[in-house]
Structures are given as C-alpha cells and as structure tokens.
Write a structure and sequence with these properties.
Chains A, B, C, D: This is Putative adenosylhomocysteinase 3. Chains A, B, C, D: Pfam families: AdoHcyase, AdoHcyase_NAD. Four copies of one chain form a homotetramer. In chain A, the strands form two sheets. Chain A has an eight-stranded mixed beta sheet with strand order 9-8-7-10-11-14-13-12. Chain A folds into two domains: about 180 residues, Adenosylhomocysteinase-like (Rossmann fold, 3-Layer(aba) Sandwich); about 160 residues, Rossmann fold, CATH 3.40.50. Chain A is globular and about 65 Å long. In chain A, helix 2 packs across helix 5, helix 3 runs parallel beside helix 4 and helix 4 runs parallel beside helix 13. The first copy, chain A, starts with 9 loop residues before the first strand and ends in a 14-residue tail after the last helix. The longest helix of chain A has 24 residues. Chain A is about 35% helix and about 15% strand. The first copy, chain A, is α/β, with parallel strands linked by helices.
Chain lengths: ~475, ~475, ~475, ~475
C-alpha cells in the first residue's frame, strides 16, 4: 500500500481506469447522470486538506466560480480553467524555485531533449497541482509530449502555479476549493476534448465508454527509491514537523507509542528517539518486532502503555488500531495522530458520541473533551498527518516525478510486445538511474567497478547492481 | 548572555532600572519629552516579530487604537488597556491549556498558597504577554501578590490572553502591534499609578526620578536548569522547527556548517546529525573545538566549507561571523540563519547594496539575489531564528516562570541583610527545587539518599547535591 | 553471499555435497589418495583462526595427537575422537551457560519434544564446535535425531565442549588445532560408519561415490531474520569490538571510510557514527549510495579521502577494493580491516614485497612498515575481522541454530513431493516463527490481529504477515 | 572525585605527601618498621589488576625477584630495579608506537626544548609505568628535568617499557607483580637517594621525616579537558569495551539500568542507547534527573526495574548503591558492574555468605549462584570496570600527561609568591592550551578571532575564552 494516499501512482501507456490502489473503485463510475450519487466514493486523498506552504491567494480573490469565467492567456489561448490567469508571474517564480530542488528532472530535460523521446505522446494527468508538478509537466513537454492536467484533490491546487501553467500553454483544469461537482467537471474537460486522444496517462480518473482498457502500466510506487524516500526518510522528518506545527509539543522526555514498525514506523521511531522521546512500539509481525527490539524500543501491547503515553502514532496500514476503548484510557492532553494509510487506523467515528465535546483549537487540531474534563488532542481528524499538517520535501517529489517521467519514456518507446496488458514494476536499472540522477544534489561521488571486479561479481558495470527483490 | 533576547531575566526586590543585559541602556531614558528621539535604542527583542502559535485576532478587530477605547471588565474595573475585552473567554481557554503544561507553577500554587508568601508584594512586570505569562501572573496572585504588567515586545502580545487577564482583574497594558509610542505609554501606565508603589519587579523597563535604584536582584537567567533548557534542549528542537516552517528544507544529506559549539551549537549539531545532515563546526575555543571533534563533527574554518554547504547556522554570540565575503561565496540556494545572540552574527547590512536584489518570498524568508542569479535564503533578516520562526515550548517557559516565582519569594522573604545591593545567582538548592517540580511531568521518580549515603557523601539528604559551579 | 564464511549454511534432506556458496568446490574431491594434493582448496573458513571467548585448554594438555589416543566416556562408549574426555564437566558448564542465551532452542525442545518430529533422522553436521553448537545438537537429539559431528574449522573447536558432547554420547570428531590431514580424517570418521546411513546433513563436507546427490535442501542463510542479525545488528557491535580488542583505538573524532553500504556497511557506519567517528562511504550502487547520503554520510571515492582517514573498513563482497596504490597513500598509523566477505577485499598479496617490513605486534595485528617508517596496521591479515577478532553473540548463533533445526523438521516431515531436488528458501512463516521464539528474550509482547483486522488486511491471523520478498 | 582511581593526579612543586583524594591517608605511614602492619591501607588502585594491552612477558621470564638481581644497562648504569633489562628493545618499540598517539607531548618537546623550562627540576613520579608514561618521562627529560620513578600499582607495570627506560638512563623501580613489600621498597629506592633531593613530584607516595610538607600543588584532575575525556568520552567507549571483553553480551535489545547521570553515566547511557539497549536511569539530583528525561531515558528508582533488567551499571561515586536486597531480586544472568568510583558502589561483601556460591568463569568475571540456580554475573568483583577490563585510550592518557607536564612547567617557573601553599586548579588558559595541542590529531582547524570580534567580546585573542567555571 502506498504511503501517500495519492490515487494511484501508476503511469500507463494508454488511457485506462485501473488503479494501483485496488480499494478505490472509480472505474465503476458509469455516466455523468450517476455522478452525484457516487459522491461519497470520492477517495480520501481527493478531499484531504493539503498543506501547501505557499498559499497567497486565499482571501484576495473574487468569489466567481472559475467555471463561470472566461479567461485567456497572453497568447489568446483559453483551453484551461483556473482561478485567475493574472497570478501567472507569481506562479512562475514558485516553479523556478522548485526547479532548483528538482535537478534530476532538469538533467533529464538536458539529456533526453535532443531526441524528444516523448514526441507524439499525449499525456493526461491527474495529480496534486503544485510547483513540483509543473516542473514535471514542463519536462514532459520538453521531451516532446502534449499534456492536459486536472487535480486529484479538491484542496491542493496552488492557484498561481495553475495560472503559470495556463500562461505557458498547458491545458489545466483545477483550482483550490473545487466542489465535488467541479472535480468531475474538470476531469471531463481535461480528458474529453475534440480531436485529441490521449495515449498515456498519469493517475487519471476518467470516463470511458469501453470500461476498463487493458494496456501496459507501470507501478511507480513500489520502486525502491520511492519507497525508502516516501516512507523511511520522509516520515523521519515529517513526523517531527507535523507534530510541531500543530501542537508545538516538546519532544524531549515525552513518552510515545508508535503502532507499527514498518518503514514509516522505523522513520518515526528514529526521529523521536533522536529528539529525546521515550518510544514504545507495537507490532503484529514477529520479524519487525525483533527489529524494534534490536533498535532499542520496548515492544508492548497498546493496552500496556496507553495510560502513560503522551503521544500515540499509528503507522500500520491496518484499521481500528486505536479504538474508543484506548481513547477512553488515554491521559489528559494525549496527542493522537495517524502516519499510516488512509484514515482507518484511528476509530474517529467512535468519538462522535453525545457525551464527548469536540473543540477545534487550530486548523487540523481538535480537542475531544470527556465529561470529566480530560482532553485528547486529535490531529487531522485521524487522516494522514504528514499529508495534512506538514509539507513533503521537494526532493521526495523530485524522485517520484523523475520516476514517472522515466516510466513514461520506457513504456512509450518499448518495442511492441515487451509489455503486456499488465502492471509492471519499474525495471531495477531505471530505479538505479533515478537514484543516480539525484546524487549530484549531495555532491556524492559514485565508485565505478573495474572490469575485473565486474567480472568477479558477475555484474554489468552499469548495473543493475542488485536483484529486483533487493530493498 | 541570555539566549532568548528577552530584556533581562532578572527579578528584583524593589523597583530598579538595572538590566542583566548591560548592552541595553534603557535606564538612560530621561523623560517623556525625550522619548521619540530615543526610539532607535529600543532593544531588538522589543521589535522582533514573535511567532505566536495561536493568533486568532489578526483580522477581525476594528482599527481603533486601544488607547482611544474605554473598556471595562464584567465587574466594572477599567484599570487596563488592551485590544478587546470581549475576547476574554477565548483567552481563558488558552490559559487553561497552558496550565496543563506548567505543572510546576500549579504545584507551587498548591504548596505555597496556604501561607501566601507574597502577601503584600506589589509586582510590576514587563514580559511577553502570553498564556504562559498569564499562568505566572495568576500564580503570583494566588501567592498573595498584586501584579501590574506591560509587554516587552510590540508584536508578541496575545490579545485574547490580555483580555482574559483584564477580565480577571489584572491591570494589563499591552496589545499586539503597538507603536513605539504606545510601548512607552503602556509602561508608564503600568508603573506610575496613584497610591500603588511597586516593591518588586520582573524585567521592568521604567522611569524613575531616583535613577538607578540599588536593590538586591536575582539573575534568573544563569540558573543551570534554565540554561540547559533554553539552550541545549530547546535549540535541539527549534533549529529543526524553524528551518522547516520557513523553508521546508529536507535535512537528510544536507551539508551544514554550525558556527560555535557552545550549548546552542551542541543542540543544533545533535539534532541535524540525527536527521541525517552532514555537519561541520567552527570554533574559536580549543576546548569546545575538541568536544566537537569527539562528538563526530569536522572542525573547520568557515572558508574551507562555505562553497559547499547548504545551510549556515550561527551560534556564537559574536559579531560579523558571516560577512559579505562568505555570503558572496555561498552556493545557490544556501540558507543562512542565526541561532545565537541578538542580530549581530550575520552582517546583514553588507547585503543592502545596489547590485543585490531582495525578494521577500514568505514571512521571515528573504531571497537575496546576486547579479548572476544566485539566491541566498536569509531567514528572519539575521535575527534569532528560534524566536522569530518557531515557538518556544511551554515546558521551557514553565521552567523560567517557576524560577522567577521562586526568586521573588526568596527575595521577598529573605531576612534583612542576606541580600545586599547586588545581583545574585539563584541558590543551587532552588535551582534543584525548580527541576524537581518538573519531574512529575515525565513520571520521573527520584531516588533519595539513605542516611548512610548522605553521610558518606557529606551531603544534606535534601540537597543541594552539587557545588554551585556545577553545570 | 553469506557474511560469516561458514562453509554453506544449508541443511539438506539427504547426504549431499552441494554448497550454498558455489565458489567452493569440495564436491570434486575424488578419493582419499588425492587428498593432500587438494589441500590448498580448503576454504578460508576452515583455517581462519576463530576467537573463542573461553579457551582454557591451551597449555595444560599433553601433546599426544587425539588420533593416537584411546578414550572412552563414562558409559564405555568410544565412538568419538576429541582432545580430552576429562574436560567434560567443564564443557558441560559452558553448555549450560549457552542454554540460557538460546531460549528459542530450549522452547523448541519443549514444544516439539512430545511428538519427536525428528525420530529416525540421522544427521551429520560439520560446523564450528562450540557450546552453542552443542545446544543445537542436544536439541536435535531431544527431537529424536541421531547426530554425528565434525568441525568445519581447524582452530575453532572448544575442546571441553567436544568432551562434554562425547560424554553425553554424541559421536564427535574434532579438536582445536587439527592439521589439514586431521580435518579430512575427522570428516571421514564422522560420515563413513558401518551400518549408519545419514539421511540429513548440516553443512557437511564429505566423500560420496555417487558424486553430487540431488536432494532437496534449504538455504538457511538467506532468511530475513538471519540476514538482519548476522549483518546489520551483529556487525554494528562486532566492528567496535573487533577494532578495540586488536588496537584499543579511540573512536571519537576518528575519520573512517567504510567501503560498501549494504547491511554490513550500514551496521558499521551506524556504530562508528554513534561513537563520534566521522564516517565516509564508498558505493557502486546508486540506490545504496543515496541511502548513505540520507543517513548523513559523505559519499566519496576512495582516492578522495584515503590520505586523511584513520581507519579503512571494507564491506563490499567485492575483490581488490583496497589495492596497493591506496595502501601506499594511507597516512602513518592507518588501520585497515575487512568486514565483508572472505579475504579478497584487501589486496594483501600486494604487500608481500621486499621493501615493506611486516611486524606482528599482537595476535591478529600486523604492522606493515614502509621504507620511510610509515606503518599501516593490518588486522587479521585481511581476513574477516568479526570472525577473527571478536566473538559472535550467542543470540545471533541462537537464531541460526533455531532456523537450522526448524528447516530440518520441515524437510524431514514434508509430504513427499513438496520439495523437489532444489535449494529452497525457508518459508516466510517459519522465518517469522524463529523470530517469535526469540521475542521472550526481550520481554517483548506481540500484538495479535483481531478477526476484523485480519480480514481487512487479507492475512491469516497467524501469519505469514509479509510477502516473501519483504526484507 | 577523580574517576580513574589513580592515587592523586596532583603535581607539586616540592616533595609532599598530600593527596588529591583525601580519603587515602598514606601520609600517615610513619616508618619502615610499621610498614607491614599498614598493608591493608594500600589503595584500591595499587592492587587493581590493570589491563595492559601488550604483556609479552608473562611466562618467558625466570622467577628470580628483581630485588635479588644485579642488572646494568649498556652504559654500565645500574641505578634501577626492573624485571629484565634485555627487554629494552621490545619496550622501545612500544614507546615509539605510543609517541604517535601522543602528539601533544611531542609538540611540547619541540616548542619548549630550546629553553629547557625544567632545567634543574628533580622530579619523582609514582604512576602506572606504561609506554605512555615513558613518553611523559622522556618529555620531561627533554625539557631539562631529572626523573626517578616508581609504580603506583603492583600489577600495571609493562616490564619491557621499564627496561627501555632503564636502558635510556632513567632510574625506574617497578615490575609487574610486585608484592606489597616490594611496592614500598621501590618507592623508598626511588625517593631516598644520596645527594639527590627531589623538588617536584607527580603523585608520589613517600616517606618524610617532616611529615606533610606544605608546598604549592596543582590539581590536574579537575581540568575541563581531563574531566570530559576521562569521564564522558572515555566511558562512552570503555563501557562497551569492558562489557564485551568480559561477557560477549549483545547490547541490542538489552534492558540496562544506569545508576547516576553525571558525566560517566551520560557517557554510558549514550553508548548503550546507540547500540540499541533500552536504558533506565536512577538519580538523586533533580537537575541531572531532568537531563536524563530530556535525553530520552526513563528515570526510575532501582527497585522499579531491578527484576527486569539485563545489566546494572553504577556510576554514582556513592556507596551501597546496589545492595544485597537488589542482588537477590535480579533475574538469572543479570550482569552487574561498576563504572563509578573505587569499589564501594556495589555491596560485594554482602554476597560473601554461605548460601551463595562463587564461580570464577573468566578473568574478572564471577558467577554468583543462588540456591535456586540463579546466576548473577559480577564483573571485576565490583571494582572499576574500565580500569580492570578495558584499556584506556592513549589519547586520553596523552591529555593527562600533557596537563601534568604543563602544570610542572607552570609551578616550576612561576614567580615566587604566585602560588601559595595550596592546591590550585590548572589555569583556564593552560587547559585551553592542552586542548589546542590535541586538535591536530583530528586535523581540526581552529578559527581565530578578528581584532574587532575580540574587542566586541572583551576577550584576548589568544584566550582564555571562557570563565574558569565553564564546563
């Protein structure tokens, strides 16, 4: 299961409706008529509020719906629908800043630009529309592709970035604060355009008369590089950031229980231990449990420590890990949050009972108050803390975007027949290539095998260096 | 030198004008007439913008100056001047939340309340006016003191807290966004009141016909507990928080140079090392330098690494540590910030030259742009990062406030003659007492000496346990 | 490639000659006549001196070869060949102490004893003969197996343990300080016994008229649990232990380069970083390289730092990583050692030239002296440091031994046809079972899935909890 | 209290009998006649077995007492008494190796040699006689001093080093394995020599008709540099080394309680936490207790965790910290050791009762066995683990020796009257100088203050940089 609940980090050769995350079943959406009745099936990630570091546009704009506006960019092109084209300059600066932290995409532009490996590609995308996405789109464009884009989340669009993209000639259909009807309208406008048949997609939710199209697709999400960065390295930082921004809690001396010791749990535990917290771990898998022991964490059942801990963090991918029974026994001021998957881990629904009072004390922070005055501090209403309350480092997004771009190139240029109608893992060698493109950021110098060494190890000097299963 | 640039963490037995931080010379302010001409002598801390986690009042209020309003609390008392008394309920909740993280003051209320050790004390205070300050004021009141208060900083007042204090009967004169003239007016109103002669003060800047009154005072700032918390433990967290909130930088793999390896530098280095940064240290003192080596940091001169580092952090207490010459040689995107003392460490003035462009990209974040396009990211214009861009944990404020309260009790109740007209360090035993009051927060259980052990060590069973010089 | 160079951590259903480590080709050994001429093919591990924590027998014994002695145990049984049966009591105590640190095997005895799952099994083994091996052998015996054993290494036998085993009725053929001829004689005596046909083996090197017998075998070495413990967790401790015992070097402030950032390299780097060393990493694989960056290590080529480092550690599994060119450029006193695989990583042969002087300063420590007086400190002559100069924690050996015992039970009891003539990985579920047997050591409490959770995750409540490829 | 129980790290201007550690009262020893009756007052450190890394001489030598031998060096000088002058070459190599790790003394030789600042000084010393001591002695000699030396410990002398010193013309009276009578005989021979009146001493235990001579002395032990290195940095490494060498215990996952959180405790806790142990701390001082909390350790009373921990480490300087009551409640296999001061912390005497069996399993390791079979593993019989079971890094000894040399120079050259008949702390500036002499070892580059900065800080550009009380 992907950690960031983006709706399917899959790139596909042709428009298709299949999703990496099979729990979502958007492909069953039949027709425009039935749309409203399906509204409750919108994925969590589509409605998660998304912490955008730079949102300058909240209050200054008028209240007219973008759907009711007629806008054109400076070249007279009007094939887009965004909040306000006048914010383009401001968005351009955000994109330029992002470019500096996405050196791998910039390198890809340089290396692959001459040959235009995506010439003729018609890509539709449905992702968060941010400065980082813009760098990806402009890279795909530089490689020869035509792009149309919609947002995967009704809150996450950076309006000024959308404006810069529209000004640059991209057909973008997205704004911050879309209604659910807007959401589907944008996807329709993005995909269904006269005389333009997409032949590649990135995560696009869309209608199709033909139903599920069976084409090759590549699961970008399970690449080693992405996994380690999204989970271990990213969470190591975002757990601290998310907790600080929401609660200003001091970590030193705090007792914390982390539920789950997979990559996400490992990242959270390492960070909190380093900050002077006393960390307990719960696990169901004895192998991960033994790793927790060897890393210096007491392995407990939740009920053994629930009365004494200051912070509870879920990282399991499981459901109902923190249930009402545990919430009832927490001490006053205990902070509860979710770093795992979707919003199932904490049984938030069980807190919606008459005897408990909810008090919104800050954005993303609720105090749930028991009759005796005890307060439990619930973050992001149990949704993903790192998505809701911290920012994802551009560097991590850079890895994802580079992997997506390479996967598109691979699929688009593969000899016919190499990829069947299936979902493929990124070839190990491309995974290694993505990593190598990011090493210059750290002024890191890779050693090359000598001929003799390569022969001894039975490896090609250019990799792949590890078996596919290696993590 | 105190790390947080509060104007003098001294409590004094009688109104006086002396300051712990001798570089400030407010005591020379002669009269109301000369006030405006002295405006440039306002201390850094008085004008630092102060990151208050909860500021709900920015936009909703009217624009009338509080000085022009007539407000009364629900009991008809009008001896205060604040933004809006109607925010009292909201402020009360903030205070109640703060109380939960300041258990030592609450314990002090309980332990000392019966005897009212401050009965008869008339305290004037001049500090940041926040929920935490309110807990201190209400503790002093519970111990028998009468309190009047003004703000030490024109930006830092939490208006709703001031309202709650006014509603509770405290004479508070402060609001967020005071002008400099307002600032002095508030202090005047706080101190000069008919028929009420203050006999104790906390950090108060005020007029006196008698000039510098020579009374006993206690330097709260150099207590071991406060030092360690303000510097080592607090900075360990706030360096990460401050950098993340302003720049969203990913720490992993970043090269960082930390100038100075005192307590602040030690905290910054430990935190960044734990987050996967590669940290270099500069030092002038060979003993601290050797400690840096033993802690695993390469000790360099700044010019050896200035071209390669991603982040520069000053923690020296010195001036002109980062000068234009170094700024010229930094690489594109390098982040520069100050965790040390006041605003002297980075020579910001040297960046105010015509060929450099300044661009404010977020609050507290400037891009300084060289003619070739290189950008240096300057945080808080070189002022203290942790004061400007992160929040100080309530727990640390709790230690300060408890120490202040105990120092007032000690001074007020000492037999005549024990304290001469001088500045005293907090007695070791009281320092230990403050620490002991904070142990229950961590569910920490102290071991007691047996009679035999106390005799063996030559110690009193109740402490003090260490010599005064012990750090 | 296995990290500890034991000759093949494979357990097999029937006597066979195949080895996990295919580079060894003992199976080609044709006959007793040709034995001496094959002497140089004896594996590294067979001649490595092995640091045995407790060797009490060095000087007290007579010089008679065990092959020339006639010994019987107290029950009159003489089917063994060891140093001195009189040391049995002393060895028994060593075994009892080891039992306390191998709770999983003891638990296995209890759980599986009733059913005797190895009844009828005839096991020959060829491993280090230590107290820990004895606990394994006595466990197999308790489960119903008959065992005969020889040593896999001419130095590593604990004579007193061999005595205790012989006294207990096991047919053991091993002593410390065997000659190469002794080594093969012992294996012959172990395997070729009238009227006893082995049907299972653990790592046994032996003669067979039929050549390579094709039977199912299980690769114990690549189980997750064993991998993590042998490599990451074990090396994290043994790198410090090995360096200290040989050189007494202080780690704080030392500059160290670690070649290779796989599991072994990760363990070494983490330990040395924690002890205050400044660590550089070299890598050929960009993915591991990026991990090193994110963990806070500078990624360099060896030639960039070779002049400045105090310690060089190889963990690559590659050959000629440290060649003469680098050795020539090291600074005076530089320590060089190998934590990787076999003895190929450091080109020790290149140091056997006339202008260099070798000086043995301690056991396992040579000073190689250049004409200008420069000394390089070479540990264990380039062989594995952790095998030669530190001890392997009993806990790690416990995991290996438990895995071996479980693999034997699985193979012996599997329905015919489940395992073909191939080498199998330990089933994930058994890997998890080994881990679970070791959790009580840490007083670790595993959480159980609820029915609802198991259903949600699509897992059996008893595992396996992860896919086979999960590491 | 000094951490390493050396008998007084004081250097004195004139022969005197005063000791830094006042609990020892050797100065009361009246006459040769009374010597034997005073034998039990020999300090702990004089009889501690001392782990000498290189002892090549154990078995090869004859059994004749050195006192009965007539030996002369190659120049015909016989004013020494050692084991065997023939070992001089071997000892010389040990000294040369030590020189490489004591660069500060070598630098001192170079810097101060021209002026011979100790010309005329007659120094008697009584310390461990090791290669490191030899480097100190030869440095003092190079600076102009005449030296005579005896051992402070009956086990710690490296015979080959003593031989090299004797061959070099030093009057050394020491060998490994002295009897108590030998010990005092050596000191007599060292001090009482016709026509040679010592005027300086390092830690010398000696007879004096005049009783306690009152002369200036310098307490080398409390210098910042020495304190930090002996305690924090040294113990961080030696706790791991001492535990591994004696017990081969795996640290990962072990539960450990550390009694006392001073510098030694901090070092032990940091090391064990880094190795994956779960660490609990006990403290009597609330300030140190709060530090433990902030560093992420649970603060407990010993009785709360004594049943569950795997290792108990005392670092208090106190007595009877681990008493029989706690030993009775430890679990089977629990390891108990002392890193604190002298041998009072663990009540070993209480284990000498009939129902308990003692079993010596290795050098320095006893199993104490309860009637029910429970074993407690007692290390070094409760004496200092790091002195008994690990080696002290040469670098730490280098700091001590350099400080001693500088203190002698300071005392010897001070204008009359600067130092009264008292014990002085090393001046801060010299402490800083010792540190600066050790920086080149780490290739560490100190930053120099500019004139402007020095003025701003009110400091001399060459230091001292910190107040005397700064730690």
């Amino acid at each position: 299961p992907t950690h960031f609940a983006e709706p399917g980090l899959t790139v596909a050769l042709h428009v298709q409706i299949q999703f990496a995350d099979q729990k979502q079943e958007f492909n069953k959406r039949p027709s425009k008529i039935g749309r409203r009745s399906l509204s409750r099936s919108i994925s969590q990630s589509s409605t998660d509020s998304y912490s955008s570091a730079a949102s300058y546009t909240d209050s200054s704009d008028d209240e007219t719906s973008p759907r009711d506006k007629q806008q054109k960019n400076s070249k007279g092109n009007g094939d887009f629908c965004i909040k306000n084209i006048k914010q383009a300059d401001f968005g351009r600066r955000e994109i330029e800043i992002a470019e500096q932290e996405m050196p791998a995409l910039m390198a890809l532009r340089k290396r692959a630009q001459g040959e235009k490996p995506l010439a003729g590609a018609k890509v539709v995308g449905c992702t968060h529309i941010t400065a980082q996405t813009a760098v990806l789109m402009e890279t795909l464009s530089a490689l020869g592709a035509q792009c149309r884009w919609a947002a995967c989340n009704i809150y996450s669009t950076q309006n000024e970035v959308a404006a810069a993209l529209a000004e640059g000639g991209f057909s973008v259909f997205a704004w911050k604060g879309e209604s659910e009807d807007d959401f589907w309208w944008c996807i329709d406008r993005c995909v269904n355009v006269e005389g333009w048949q997409p032949n590649m997609r990135i995560n696009c939710i869309m209608l199709s008369k033909a139903g599920k199209l069976c084409v090759p697709a590549m699961n970008v999400n399970d690449s080693v590089t992405k996994q380690k960065f999204d989970n271990l390295y990213c969470c190591r930082e975002s757990i601290l950031d998310g907790l600080k921004r929401t609660t200003d809690v001091m970590f030193g001396g705090k007792q914390v229980v982390v539920c789950g010791y997979g990559e996400v749990g490992k990242g959270c535990c390492a960070a909190l231990k380093a900050m002077g917290s006393i960390v307990y771990v719960t696990e169901i898998d004895p192998i991960c449990a033994l790793q927790a022991c060897m890393d210096g964490f007491r392995l407990v059942k939740l009920n053994e420590v629930i009365r004494q801990v200051d912070i509870v963090i879920t990282c399991t991918g499981n459901k109902n890990v923190v249930v009402r029974e545990y919430l009832d026994r927490m001490k006053n001021g205990c902070i509860v949050c979710n770093m795992g998957h979707s919003n199932t881990e904490i049984d938030v629904a069980s807190l919606r009972t008459p005897e408990l009072t909810w008090e919104r004390v800050r954005s993303q922070v609720d105090h749930v108050i028991w009759p005796d005055g005890k307060r439990v501090v619930l973050l992001a209403e149990g949704r993903l803390l790192n998505l809701s309350c911290s920012t994802v480092p551009t560097f991590v997004l850079s890895i994802t975007a580079t992997t997506q771009a390479l996967a598109l190139i691979e699929l688009y240029n593969a000899p016919e027949g190499r990829y069947k109608q299936d979902v493929y893992l990124l070839p190990k060698k491309m995974d290694e290539y993505v990593a190598s493109l990011h090493l210059p950021t750290f002024d890191a110098h890779l050693t090359e095998l000598t001929d003799e060494q390569a022969k001894y190890l039975g490896l090609n000097k250019n990799g792949p260096f590890k078996p596919n299963y290696y993590r």
